[in-house]
What does this fold into?
Amino acid sequence: MLTELSGGAIAAVAVLGVLAAAGGIAVFVVDSMARATFALLASFLAVAGMLLVLDLTYLAVITALMMTMEMAVMAVFMIMFMMNPAGLMPMTMVHNTRGSAAVGVGAFAVLVVGIWTVDWPTRDGEPPADPTRQLGEAIMGSHMLVMLVVGIGLFATILAGTVLATARGRYDRFGADLKASRPDDPVPGGLPR
Amino acid sequence: MIETATLAAAWGLVPAVVAVVATGLLLGLVVAVIDQTVLTGGGAGSGLSPLREGTRLLLEQRRTTLAPDALLWRTGVIAVPVLALLSLAVVPIGEPTLWSTSADLVWFNAMEALLWAAVWLVGWGPNAVHALTGGYRFLAQGLAYELPLMFALITVGLGAGSLRSTDIVAAQDDLWFVVTMPVAFVVFLAGAAAFSFWGPFAAPVGADVAGGVSSELSGVDRLLVQIGRAVFLGASAAMAAALFLGAGAGPVLPGPVWHLLKTLAVVVALIWVGRRLPVLRPDRTVEIGWMVLVPLTLLQTLVVAVLVLTDFYG
It folds into this structure.
């Protein structure tokens, strides 16, 4: 794999890799919600840059797209659920700092040792003409079941997390006998009903 | 990777980038001038006022706030115009794009998503309540229109069978996509206005929060954010002309001229309509986005999918 890349590409991947790791470390070092969030985002964007260098354009832009949205939605969730919603006071964004740092460093070490010691097979055949199309065909074909299970699992987790976190349920909205014609919401919403 | 002719390949990387940046800035200026003309009714000098205002901001001394997060503030302020220009990299200018990838549509959408982060940073950076409120308003609106916007983009990719801008333009040889995808067209333009937090989506910079995101911006900072908003609106109009109106397709005149004319028509229509609508309350947008626009755009995608299956697009 390394031999197929130009010198410039290898240098770019190396620099982006260092940036990604530095961003990850910065999450533990900084003391503000916004800086921790955006250190993490910078780390993910460096990973997206690496994918871009490897000519996996779709994976690169979708990584940038999803991770950015994730960080933005996280900022929204913070104002919904946290005691310090604006994050204007210094605060740490990691829980169990030592434990999580140990897990992070351990995983990093295992992966690096694995990457450099495994005897990777050489490429069999040519790179596809259009990796995006090949990826789409794999997701919609042979890997459809996996993608569906993962997708539904993620969706269920999101819903369950929101349900557990919110204090209001359907009895608050529609009354004890669930017979109110209009839900009693703190924010009215945009549709007349 | 399929080698497609790009501006970067044709002219060399640096001249192509300069050309795209110049195009973007010109588009932004055109948007600002038309916006000003529609707002003021086109009095004498309304064409010059964006330039005059820009020069004034360039010379104005920057003020700051108490204990701002300078690093993140500057990052956000610089990112807004940079992302607007980057989104132009996959818009066909003339015929080719600056940089053709097999996922141009996703690239365009990724730049929009990064704008979320950038604008939130502009609101968070100054450590001020009105600016922060504006930043959160921008995110709250984003939750409403992002999904419909994505479905609109997916519809275009589905119709063309490709995510590459030049393929999408080529797929409209017989019929412009706007004919079979009117809902996607409108949602795309609404998303463009919302990402520029302009017109009916201007609540993040609303007067009720003293200017919101832009309330603490001054001098070059304010200029950069305003340029970013105008350039993004212009780039989106050019993208809309390419995705839905067949880009350079048209009789007699050369392709680039047609694309420019269509882009200008989209800008004028967007501003003429947008400036006549009231500003939407951000807390009223999510329900409309999810209960009305998501089903509508899904239905739009379904119609196009059926048309694709019947070989309607050839």
Summary: The mean pLDDT of chain A is 85. Chain A has two domains: 1-119, 130-167.
